[in-house]
Design brief:
Blueprint (H helix, E strand, L loop, with lengths): L28 H8 L4 E2 L1 E6 L5 E6 L3 E4 L4 E7 L5 H6 L2 E6 L5 H8 L28 E13 L2 E13 L5 E4 L2 E4 L11
Antiparallel strand pairs: 1-9, 2-3, 2-6, 4-5, 5-8, 6-7, 7-8, 9-10
Length: 192
């Protein structure tokens, strides 16, 4: 007997059923982007290599930690992105958290018109098949593919952190459509 409500069919079916669908807010994408811009984020470049070993990379500001044990991070990629298939198939990717002085790199890797994004970009020395890591970034996380989920008009990509490198310094931030230098102060860990 069908109730007309679609049921969640994922790995947690029956544990966390999807709620009944409700209409979304009627807001043009540009207005929604402006509204969400009130939440400041960090800026990173995520890189991998395609099937031929060529480096691919793009600027992201939607990268978040999701688990400490195992160490997992999550980021998303638009379903229309030119690099979608490469990232879907990649077994590894690297996230370089940009420093406050790397705005030009953030802009280059965000521009879909730039074809050779890696021209003249300093990279950390690595094995030839490793995902590129941007030199001068304040932190690097190399990850293996953990899981992927299509959600709306994006693909969520979860990675298991297998290697880290932290150089420190002020991070680059993005807020209300502008790049800003982040704080350089030493942060104290909040006990929870």
């Amino acid at each position: 007997m069908s109730t007309g409500t679609p049921h969640y069919a994922g790995p947690w079916a029956g544990v966390f059923p999807a709620p009944a669908a409700v209409p979304s807010v009627s807001l043009p994408p540009r207005a929604l982007r402006r509204l969400l811009g009130h939440f400041p984020t960090g800026v990173a470049i995520v890189c991998t290599r395609d099937a031929r070993g060529r480096p691919l990379g793009l600027t992201i500001n939607s990268f978040v930690p999701v688990s400490l044990q195992p160490p997992l991070v999550l980021w998303n990629l638009a379903l229309h992105a030119q690099s979608l298939q490469a990232f879907q198939r990649a077994t590894r990717f690297a996230i370089s958290v940009l420093g406050a002085d790397q705005e030009a790199l953030a802009r280059t890797f965000a521009d879909p018109q730039v074809r050779n994004r890696f021209d003249g970009v300093p990279l950390l020395p690595d094995e030839d098949d490793a995902p590129p890591r941007i030199a001068g970034a304040v932190a690097h996380l190399t990850c293996t593919r953990h899981a992927q989920w299509p959600v709306g008009d994006h693909l969520l990509l979860a990675g298991r952190i297998i290697e880290i490198n932290e150089t420190g310094g002020a991070p680059l931030m993005f807020h209300r459509g502008r790049f800003l230098p982040g704080p350089l102060d030493t942060l104290r860990e909040v006990q929870t």
